[in-house]
Hints:
deaminase activity
Amino acid sequence: MLSRDVVFPAGRRALYERNRYSPAVRSNGFLFVSGQVGSREDGSPEPDLVAQVRLAFDNLNAILEAAGSSFDNVIDVTVFMVDPKSTFETIWTVVPEYWGDAPYPTLTAVGVTWLYGFDFEIKVIAKSPEAASTDNGNP
């Protein structure tokens, strides 16, 4: 059986245990982070879209930090948006606050019809801090 090196952010372990998934798993020099939404501490959606996107990034950054990493080590991003035709521009006003400087990670944006009551979700793959420090800036 595969042994998973699971990363839990502070104060959110019960949420993941209740929903039966790992927030992030380290494997072969990479950190695979589950989709993060703008959930409040009780798991409910933040109703304001801009605040929800910020909270999703804050939740993502808490996991990256728990792994000893940061968004600077992110190499691939997937975002899911409910009704992207009407929400994309609003969401993309928030993204640069968290995205950092070029070169940017790769991005796949997916329009969906349902996200368990949320309007935005972000999942990433990052190099683990050890692997990122040894690559000398090369992919």
